[in-house]
Design brief:
Elements lengths: L2 H10 L2 H13 L4 H16 L18 E7 L6 E7 L7 E2 L6 E7 L1 E13 L2 E13 L3 E4 L6 E5 L6 E7 L5 E9 L2 E8 L4
Antiparallel strand pairs: 1-2, 2-9, 3-10, 4-7, 4-9, 5-6, 5-8, 6-11, 10-11
Length: about 200
C-alpha cells in the first residue's frame, strides 16, 4: 500500500491511529501473553465508540472475504487488518501461522468455533470443536498459539460484518483445514492476499 493510500485510510478511519498507539505500547512488554492482554484491554475502550465505519470498509465480495491490510509496523512488524464478511460468509478452520493475534468485531456479528487437534492419521488431522461463541459488535478475543485454531462466520444472512485483526507478524500463509469426513480434515498451507 502506498503512503498516500495509507494516509487516506487513516484519515477516514481514525480508530486505526488508536490501534497503532495501543499496539506500539503493548509491544514494549515483548511477551506474547502480555501483548495480547494489553491489546484486548486497550481495545475495549477504543472500539466502544467506533461510530460509523467508512464506506470502503463495508464493501464486501460474494466471492470471498475481503482482507484489507491497514498497517504494518516498520518497527515491530505487527500487522493490522480489517476483514469484511459478506452476508453468511465464513472461513474454513484455520490457524494463525504460530503468531499471537487479537480480533475485534466492529460491525455486525460473527460466530467462532474453536477446534482442538485430537490426533493425526497419516495425511489427515482429527479435529474436535472445543467451544462455540457468538461475537456481537464490540467483542474482542485474544489468540495465543497453539490454541488459535478456529473457523469464523458472519451469522447475518442480509448484512455485512467487519472485524479488526492485529497479528504479531504479517500473515502470509496459514494452515487451513478442509473437512473430509467425520472429524477428519486435510491440512493445507494457503497463501493469504490483502487489498
Amino acid at each position: 500500500m502506498t503512503q498516500s493510500a495509507e494516509a487516506a485510510r487513516r484519515e477516514s478511519f481514525p480508530l486505526l491511529d488508536d490501534v497503532i498507539v495501543l499496539a506500539d505500547i503493548a509491544m514494549s512488554s515483548n511477551h506474547p501473553q502480555r501483548i495480547v492482554s494489553a491489546l484486548v484491554e486497550g481495545l475495549r475502550g477504543a472500539i466502544a465508540d467506533v461510530g460509523v465505519l467508512p464506506p470502503w470498509l463495508l464493501e464486501s465480495d460474494a466471492g470471498g472475504l475481503v482482507r484489507r491490510e491497514l498497517y504494518r509496523s516498520p518497527e515491530f512488524d505487527y500487522q493490522v487488518l480489517a476483514i469484511t464478511w459478506a452476508p453468511g460468509q465464513g472461513s474454513t478452520v484455520h490457524d494463525h501461522a504460530d503468531t499471537w493475534g487479537v480480533e475485534a468485531v466492529l460491525h455486525g456479528q460473527l460466530e467462532v468455533v474453536d477446534y482442538r487437534i485430537a490426533g493425526r492419521h497419516k495425511a489427515l488431522t482429527e479435529l474436535h470443536p472445543a467451544d462455540h461463541r457468538p461475537l456481537p459488535a464490540g467483542t474482542i478475543l485474544g489468540l495465543l498459539p497453539p490454541h488459535d485454531l478456529h473457523s469464523c462466520r458472519n451469522v447475518n444472512a442480509r448484512a455485512v460484518a467487519v472485524s479488526l485483526h492485529i497479528y504479531g507478524k504479517r500473515l502470509k500463509d496459514v494452515t487451513c483445514y478442509t473437512h473430509v469426513e467425520d472429524a477428519l480434515y486435510r491440512a493445507e498451507r494457503v497463501r493469504l492476499t490483502s487489498v
